[in-house]
Amino acid sequence: MVTKQEGTPSGRLLMSKPSVVNVGLAGFVKDLRDCDVEVVQVDWTPPADGDPEMAALLAKLGT
Questions:
Q1: What's the CA gap between 26 and 49, in Å, rounded?
Q2: Structural domain tally of the chain?
Q3: Is 6 within the bounds of a domain?
C-alpha cells in the first residue's frame, strides 16, 4: 500500500536510502560508511586557502 505522502517527490526522498556528497572534512566519511550510507568524498579547499586578498589577485590572473 502506498500512502499519499510516499507518492510525492519529498515522500519518495524520505523513504529512500540516503546518498551523501561530502565536501572537505574526510572524517565524516568513515562515520557515514559505518552506517552503510553511500558517500562520495570531494577533496576541496577554498581558493587561496581562504585568503580573500590572494583570491582576488589570483582572479585577476585568470582574466
A1: 17
A2: 1
A3: no
DSSP codes joined into one string, the chain: ---TGGGSHHHHHHHSPPEEEEES-THHHHHHHHTT-EEEEE----GGGG-HHHHHHHHHHT-
Q: In this predicted model, what pLDDT tens digit does every residue of 6-39 receive, in sequence order?
A: 678 888 888 888 899 999 788 889 999 999 999 9
Q: What is the pLDDT of residue 15?
A: 87
- Taken in order 8, 41, 56, 53, the sign of the CA dihedral is positive
Domain span at residue 39 reads 18-61
Question: Could you tell me the pTM of the whole model?
Answer: 0.52
